[in-house]
Every structure is written in structure tokens, then in C-alpha cells.
Here is the input.
Amino acid sequence: MYLAKPPYNRGMPELPEVETVRIGLSQFLPKKQVAKVTFDWPKGFPNAASDVQAFLVGAHIAEVRRRAKVLLIDLDTGYTLVIHLKMTGQLVYRDGSQRFGAGHPNHSLVGDLPDKSTRVVFTFSDDSKLFFNDQRKFGWVRLLPTTEVENLDFFQKVGPEPLAADFTADDFIARLMRRSKSGIKAVLLDQTVVAGVGNIYADESLWGAKIHPESKVQDIPREQLVDLYKALRAVLKLSIEKGGSTDRNYVDAEGKRGSYLTFANVFRREGQPCPRCGTIIIKTRVAGRGTHTCPYCQRVK
Here is the structure.
């Protein structure tokens, strides 16, 4: 059994959580042939029946990818399933004793599927299944020509991947400078600047670089922005390694949660001593989000 551990986020999952889902599905789905697809919520599966029959049923899965917080399942027909989990989305793969699950605990991960939250069921030629569950019905699965995926409004606007091998510190700083007069945390959370960075990883990386979240980008020395680049990538990699930052909403197929938050330095640590200097961590509100900082290590520039 493969166990995944997606995320803390009360809303949509963040980059490490979706990457955890991608890694898990990549263990099982490639080369699978889609035999049948059923769904109960047209808005969650807004695809023409003719396209489903021509390009999905009978197709083999080539690869499972991720862009920002969206999953992409490429098919050998030249089409791609674009999956957005949104707030309560969940994917569960089952094949006899093997299973992979990632989603909210109010979904049935260990019980019988499909259940009342199941929106789409993909049945493969070997009788294994992939269930897309979504209690609140905000998520969706779209079938599009692979060449058209990058033309979706979301992908046109979203920034580069922060963990991409070719995404350098210079690239990062240049993108931050597009909003040079804004507070650094607000800029980090802007998905058009850098993809997939949410509240947890903004707080943790800013602490790592000793930057106050309200500091204006233009006032932060370049060497600290380089430190921020390094800290952000390190935090994201650690979270992926630990299986996501699960706190409340997402669990795996056995009800287990990601362990990253047990290693967090400031997030959800208000009232506790800073691991670096011992000053008590405080919680404020910055960029409309609960924000955790060390008032000594992270002073406003």
C-alpha cells in the first residue's frame, strides 16, 4: 500500500500537497487503459460525451504531471485530464490490496467507494479504479487536447514553478520586483508571481530568511532576497519529503496526515519560543492571512 499525506490547508491544497498526490498516482496510473468513466455531477466533469468516447475511453495513461496546484494526467490520444481539487477534492486509487488516497477526512477513504461524495469514477481495463470525490462540488475534471492546456486562463497567468531546475535566484528576484512597492508576503502569495506558494510556506520561508512579512520588496537587501529564494525552495522540498503539511483537512487512505507541521519553525507556533533566538513567536494578520513571525529575527525594514 502506498501512503500519501496531503495537506494542512483549510482551503485549496498548496504545491507540496498536490505534488504528493502526483507522486502517489505516478506509482500506479501510467500505462493503465481507461475502460469506462461514470460521473454524477456534470459541472464537475464538464466534457462532451463524444470527446470522452473518442479520446478518454480506451486511452492509455502516459504520465501524471503537476502545474502549480493542478494535476495533469496525459493520455496517449493527445488529450489531458486537468484536475483541480479545489477545497474538498480527493483522489483515491484502488486495486485489490493496493490503494492510494489523498483528501479530506469527511470523505470515505477506507470504506466502500463510490460513496455520496464520489463525482467521477475511472475504471481501468484491469478493474482497478480511480475515484474523484468532492463533497462540496467545487473541484472539476476537464478533458482537453494536451496542446490546449497551456492556453487555459489559469495557466496563462500563473507564475513559474519555484522548484524548477531552471528557476534561478535572479529569476525569483526579478519577479518579486514586479511588485516592488508591495509587502513581501502579499507578493509571495500572488500566484502570478510564483506558482503554488501558500500561507504556510510564505511564513516559513520568510522566517528562514529573517524577513518581516510586511517589508516592502524594494526595501529588502538583495542578499536577503537570495536567502528567501533558498529558504522557500528548502521549505517546499522538506514538505514534499514529509508528505505535505497536513493539519486538519486532508488525510491519506489510512487516515494518516502529513508530518511537515511537526517540523515547522513558526507556523502555528505562536506563544512558543523562536527556535533560532528564543523570542516568543507572535501571530498577526498580514495580506489578509494569519501570519506567524519572530519579532526579533524578523524586524520590518
User: Anything to note?
Assistant: The domain at 169-195+197-244+260-293 is CATH 1.10.8.50 (Helicase, Ruva Protein; domain 3). The chain has two domains: 15-157, 169-195+197-244+260-293.
